[in-house]
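Thread title: Can someone regenerate the structure for this chain?

I was given the following input by a collaborator and told the matching structure tokens would be attached. They weren't. Posting the sequence so someone can regenerate them.
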Amino acid sequence: MSGGRHFLPLTDAERREMLAAIGAASMEQLFDELPAEVRLKENGLKLPPPLSEMELRAHLGALAAKNMNLQDHPCFLGAGVYDHFIPAVVQHVVGRSEFYTAYTPYQAEISQGLLQSIFEYQTLICRLTGMEAANASLYDGATALAEAALAACSMTRRRKVLVSRSVNPHYRRVLQSYLEGRDCLLLEIPLADGATDFSRLEAMLDGETAALLLQQPNFFGLLEEELEGAAAMAHRHGALLVLSVDPLSLALFRAPAEYGADIATGEGQGLGSPPSFGGPLLGFFAARRELLRRLPGRIVGETVDGEGRRGFVLTLQTREQHIRRERATSNICSNQALNALAAAAYLAAMGPEGLREVAELCLQKAAYAREKIASLEGYAPAFPGVHFKEFAVKLPGSGSRLNRHLLEHGIIGGLDLETYYPELGPAMLFCVTETKTREQIDALARALEGWL
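Best answer:
Regenerated them for you:
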């Protein structure tokens, strides 16, 4: 079953007809290019004998115990997925059966509780970002940024997109994949001390530019300066400014709307969803009112019924399943409703003061860790400036070897930057959130010192 539709298996006649249409003599011929040694032979799948439920539980528990969990092993890895504290009330809310098992509401208006939860989520995202409209969520921060680029191209009827190299490299890869299919030109703005080189930006902007894509704080955790100037430059050429932001940073720093951004996107996993080995994630997307009809995916609106009672509906349907495909703003098929609900519950539970306290702890603890590591011989901060939650460090040796050393000490290290930014040489991106204690940061410093 997919999208609420049922598919029946092919009959032998249909299978033969399809093989003939593609010029294949048999099903086996379709797999000829696979090496013989990796193809499953008849009776080649040797499974162990069956287990009782009790035995199976014990076996699976033993396998799960091999994983390093974040409760017993401090994690200093971020780069887009973060270990933040989640209040118990969040899990209680998302664990309720009416939310936990709910499928995408095709007959949406009968799902008033689910629609209201999405509406509240949209409202909270607008308040965080300062924008006037938000959608019901996207898959992750990467696809949200890519959808923003497509919306800008559609709005301006242009095909050139500029993105800073200080934007998450995974996001840039997804962005490249999206834009290639639309015959768009993607150009990267170079770096200067770990931030966007705005002196180079002026020469790259022109009348063909649809959007300027920046990240705040950027991939290195560094606060980008001159964002208001960048917005003015983009708007002078008729381009849109898209900011990918860390939502928790907005409790301390200015909202995207205050910089003059037209679209704000980002990764909302840190708002109530655990890292869970990298997903599921939550992409948020908010924009100025003028761009409302360019928002991808679903939007929940507030209305009244025939008796004047408050109600909620899916509105401004721009998905390809609802209108003609060629007129759709996006063919994204679903949203992260459960993760969006977690974000709404988290934001409501924390409130403005709670969010600010979390953001301050991230800022202060990351500053302490950065200073502690910088004091060690052979290590140095990669870039100057104000950092939020993450910072890059120059290493005296290979980042991959350092991470193996840290694992031996029960510590999950940072991201090896040499893979993504070879010009930096050996370097690592460390992440310190409010969940890290002084003792854990000191243990990391001792392990780094011991590696030398």
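The first strand starts at residue 133 and ends at 134.
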